[in-house]
Design brief:
185 residues; 5 helices
C-alpha cells in the first residue's frame, strides 16, 4: 500500500473519530443540560412547596391565635350580665365566627370542626344569656308566661353546654398544637 493511501485512510479514520467524538460530546452536553434542567425544576418545586407550607403555617397560627383570643374575651363577657357586656359579647361572637370561617378554609378539617363546635355552643349560650337578660330587665315589657318559661329553660339548658364548649375548646387547642408541631402542611 502506498503511503498516500495509508495517510488518506488514517485521515478518514481520524475524521470519523472526530465526528463520533463530536456527536458524543453534543449528546453528553444535551444529557447533562436535561439533567441540570430537571434538577433545577425539582429545586424550584421543592422551594415553592416549602414556602407554601411556611405561609400556610403562619396563616393557621394567626387564625388559631385570634380564635383563642376571641374565645377568651367572649367567655369573660358572657359571664357578665349587663347590656354593655352582652353587647360586646355579641360582637366578639361575630368576630369568633369570622375566625372560625377562616379556620374552615385553612384547615385541617379536624381543627375546623372543633372550632365550629366551640363557636356553635358559645353562640347558643350567648343567645340564651341575652334573651334571659332582656326578659329579666323588662326590656320587652312583661313577657308571656310561656315565653318566659321557654327562655328560662333555654338558659338553663345552655348552662349545661359549658362542659361541652370547654371540652371542644380543649380539643381545639390540642389539635391546633399538633398541627403547629407538624412539618406537614
Amino acid at each position: 500500500m502506498d503511503q498516500g493511501i495509508a495517510a488518506l485512510i488514517a485521515a478518514g479514520f481520524g475524521l470519523v473519530g472526530a465526528v463520533v467524538g463530536g456527536v458524543a460530546a453534543v449528546w453528553g452536553a444535551k444529557v447533562g443540560a436535561e439533567r441540570s434542567a430537571q434538577a433545577t425544576r425539582q429545586q424550584v418545586q421543592d422551594q415553592a412547596a416549602a414556602e407554601h407550607g411556611h405561609w400556610l403555617r403562619q396563616q393557621r397560627l394567626e387564625a388559631y391565635q385570634n380564635f383563642q383570643d376571641t374565645y377568651g374575651e367572649l367567655v369573660r363577657l358572657t359571664a357578665l350580665d349587663d347590656d354593655e357586656h352582652l353587647s360586646a359579647a355579641a360582637e366578639s361572637a361575630r368576630v369568633m365566627a369570622r375566625w372560625s370561617s377562616r379556620i374552615d378554609i385553612l384547615g385541617p378539617p379536624n381543627v375546623a370542626e372543633l372550632a365550629d363546635r366551640v363557636t356553635s355552643t358559645l353562640t347558643i349560650r350567648l343567645t340564651a344569656a341575652i334573651a334571659m337578660h332582656r326578659m329579666n330587665s323588662g326590656v320587652d315589657g312583661e313577657p308571656d308566661p310561656e315565653y318566659a318559661r321557654t327562655i328560662t329553660d333555654l338558659h338553663e339548658e345552655s348552662a349545661a353546654l359549658t362542659d361541652s364548649w370547654t371540652m371542644h375548646q380543649a380539643l381545639f387547642v390540642e389539635a391546633a398544637q399538633e398541627v403547629m408541631r407538624s412539618n406537614d402542611s
